[in-house]
Design a protein that fits this description.
The complex is a heterodimer of chains A (about 290) and B (about 375). Chain A has 13 helices and two strands, in the order H-E-E-H-H-H-H-H-H-H-H-H-H-H-H. With about 290 residues, chain A is mostly helical. Chain A has a single domain (about 30-290), classed as MetI-like fold, CATH 1.10.3720. A two-stranded antiparallel ribbon of chain A has the order 1-2. Chain A is flat, with a radius of gyration of 24 Å. Chain A starts with a helix and ends with a helix. Chain B folds into two domains: about 5-230, P-loop containing nucleotide triphosphate hydrolases (Rossmann fold); about 235-245 and about 280-365, Nucleic acid-binding proteins (OB fold (Dihydrolipoamide Acetyltransferase, E2P), Beta Barrel). Helices cover about 20% and strands about 35% of the residues of chain B. A six-stranded mixed sheet of chain B has the order 6-7-8-3-9-10, sandwiched between helices. A five-stranded antiparallel sheet of chain B has the order 13-12-11-14-20. Classes of the chains: A mainly alpha (about 290), B alpha+beta (about 375). The interface between A and B is medium-sized, with 19 and 23 residues.
């Protein structure tokens, strides 16, 4: 290495050092710390406890509670994802057309995504309320139901409600990403397809969808990761009930850590959750790496 | 083979009128270029023929059929786009097969037809590749292949060579001429490149600001431009256009330009025998030369050698002429040289309207410009 190269190398190290330090402090340290904690039985308020080795994991893996929560997390993630993608793509296609008030509509669509989760959930709980909620009122008025429905306190209603609110809250993300991609599809491709004899539906399946494939793969992976660890929306809407039926893994972590004061157990749940998410994260990394090296 | 007719076609985009009134009849099996500068309406004309734009008035016919209300896919046309518009996620083979698939051509026929096109355009080794993996020239050929495979009645080509480098463009020009000769199909070709139009077309439609200026064979366009626009647009270097006058005296005619008086042969004497008529004189660079004997003298303003020839700018009493001279011509700047004009190849245009007024216009009436 020549002196000049060494100087450049040192400069490079100096430039990335702050980022590395910050990432170490806020990601690597907490991660290692969580793994370390998961080998202890710790009482949260005092943070005092003793090492138990793999006992926490043994308990988790042999409890029906964990497997039920994992299943619940999958149901929530899959359900809300399907709705987000379906509704998001549909809305993006609509907003890509020359419709009246397009700019206004584009701004309004983003509203659920930007509104605070607490506020959104409060409004939805109000709508869902079985005594004075407008949803029941309208459905009864329309003759669809004759008794008020308990939207959040019974199954499967609670899960359906949570999934619906989740879709409402997060579909704008899909809209933004898909719409951005739609606007870059060259108009000539559609014109060529028209001349080649493709109808509206064919143009969608043969031109639009293939062009959306990349962005949809990324959006789906990101949304899986984000929905999987969603906490506030579910916690505020149902608190995990009825009877733990909407208690996803993040809610259990919270419950163990601050409800039952079992910080070690909470850490073990969190690590277990991370292992599941790791699959999706690796898929995301592999996918984005494939795309950057064609 | 079918002809294509534009009958009183109009096109406006909102309040902007792109094509006020277009009448054009493209013969069966012709290779017609729509030529003009950007914004002249040539692409709009082609897109109306393709069905990608709806005319706001008039009628477009392909063969016997009025196609104003026929969808692009049902007009039995194929189009090659400037950007090629290949489907990026499909292989070359799938791109070429696509129009067959959409038209319900039986799957069993696909391989043979794709192979025929691939052989014609030498695409055989590329069929499994994707457009991204091809060079510009190869993409161009795939786009042509996708147009050819269906055996359409009319081919539309929208500046298909403009994204290629100069060498490849020359090569593809030859290939397109050869292709037209072999297929004998009606082709409509949009270009702003006069060289492409001149070399490939059976006839050229020169357009300017939405108006058809002249619709004639390349040689007619070059030798008898209908107006000053066509005159200056066609030819490199372009035709010199200077103000001049025609004088009638004692039964003879003279051209007055740059303070000089050139006698005109009786055949060029106009029926309209005003005593003096102001005109715009057009002289192609090859129709002015250095005279051998006594003649009017012009001073040399500029010499631009290009190798095989030199482009010389001459000043004749304030009027600037461009002259094509031999590559090794020895001229000094400021030198006064005797010049000769090829009188029989001069172009006279009305100074007001810019329309050609030579009496040599023995062209059939239908080839005359319909401008303005």
């Amino acid at each position: 290495m020549t002196p000049l190269e060494r100087r450049y190398a040192l400069l490079g190290l100096a430039l990335i050092a702050p980022t590395v330090l910050i990432l170490t402090a806020v990601i690597v340290y907490p991660l290692l710390s969580a793994i370390y904690l998961s080998f202890f039985s710790i009482y949260t308020p005092t943070l005092a406890g003793k090492a138990v080795g793999l006992e926490n994991y043994r308990t988790i893996l042999s409890s029906a509670y964990f497997w039920h929560a994992l299943w619940t997390t999958f149901v929530w993630t899959a359900g809300t994802l399907v709705l987000q993608i379906g509704f998001g793509v549909g809305m993006a296609l609509l907003l890509n057309q020359n419709i009246l008030f397009r700019s206004l509509a584009r701004s309004l669509v983003l509203f659920p995504y930007f509104i605070s989760t607490v506020v959104a959930v409060l409004v939805w709980r109000w709508l869902f309320n079985d005594l004075y909620g407008i949803l029941n009122h309208l459905l009864i008025a329309a003759g669809v139901i004759d008794m008020p429905v308990d939207w959040l306190g019974s199954m499967p209603n609670a899960m359906v409600s949570v999934i619906t609110v989740g879709a409402w809250k997060f579909f704008p993300f899909v809209v933004i990403a898909v719409l951005a991609r739609l606007q870059t599809i060259p108009e000539h491709l559609y014109e060529a397809a028209r001349i080649d004899g493709a109808g509206t539906f064919s143009r969608f399946t043969d031109v639009t969808l293939p062009q959306l494939r990349d962005v949809l793969s990324i959006v789906i992976l990101l949304r899986i990761i984000w929905d999987f660890k969603e906490f506030d929306l579910i916690y505020l809407l149902t608190g995990g009930g009825p009877m733990d039926n909407t208690r996803t893994l993040p809610l259990i972590v919270y419950q163990q850590a601050f409800g039952l004061n079992q910080m070690g157990m909470a850490a073990a749940y969190a690590v277990a959750m991370m292992v599941v998410m790791l699959v999706f994260m690796l898929a995301y990394l592999a996918y984005s790496r494939d795309r950057s090296t064609p | 083979m079918v002809n294509v007719i534009f009958n009183k076609v109009q096109k406006a985009f909102g309040s902007v009128v792109a094509i006020p009134d277009l009448n054009l009849e493209i013969g069966s099996g012709e290779f017609v270029s729509l030529l003009g500068p950007s914004g002249c309406g040539k692409t709009t004309t082609l897109r109306m023929l393709a069905g990608l734009e709806q005319p706001t008035g008039g009628e477009i016919r392909i063969g016997e059929r009025a196609v104003n209300n026929v969808a692009p896919g049902e007009r039995d046309i194929a189009m090659v786009f400037q950007s090629y518009a290949l489907y990026p996620h499909m292989t070359v083979g799938q791109n070429i097969a696509y129009p067959l698939k959409k038209r319900g051509v039986p799957k069993s026929e696909h391989p043979a037809r794709i192979k025929a096109v691939a052989d014609l355009l030498q695409l055989g080794p590329l069929l499994e590749r994707r457009p991204k993996q091809l060079s510009g020239g190869q993409q161009q050929r795939v786009a042509l292949g996708r147009a050819l495979v269906r055996d359409p009645k009319v081919f539309l080509l929208d500046e298909p060579l403009s994204n290629l480098d100069a060498k490849l463009r020359a090569h593809m020009r030859t290939e397109l001429i050869e292709l037209h000769r072999r297929l004998g199909k009606t082709m409509v070709y949009v270009t702003h490149d006069q060289l492409e139009a001149m070399t490939m077309s059976t006839r050229i439609a020169v357009m300017h600001q939405g108006h058809l200026q002249q619709f004639a064979t390349p040689s007619e366009i070059y030798n008898r431009p209908a107006n000053t626009f066509v005159a200056s647009f066609i030819g490199t270097p372009s035709m010199t256009l200077v103000e001049a006058e025609i004088e009638m005296a004692e039964g003879a005619a003279f051209l007055l330009v740059g303070g000089q008086r050139f006698p005109l042969p009786p055949s060029l004497v106009m029926a309209d025998s005003r005593h003096r008529r102001p005109i715009t004189l057009g002289v192609r660079p090859e129709d002015i030369s250095i005279a051998s004997g006594e003649a009017a003298r012009a001073s040399v303003k500029l010499v631009e050698p290009t190798g095989h020839e030199s482009i010389v700018t001459l000043d004749l009493g304030g009027a600037h002429f461009v002259m094509r001279a031999a590559g090794d011509v020895a001229l000094r700047l400021g030198e006064a040289v005797p010049i000769a004009l090829r009188i029989d190849r001069l172009h006279f245009f009305d100074r007001e309207s810019g329309q050609r007024i030579n009496t040599d216009a023995e062209r059939p009436a239908e080839f005359r410009s319909i401008a303005r």
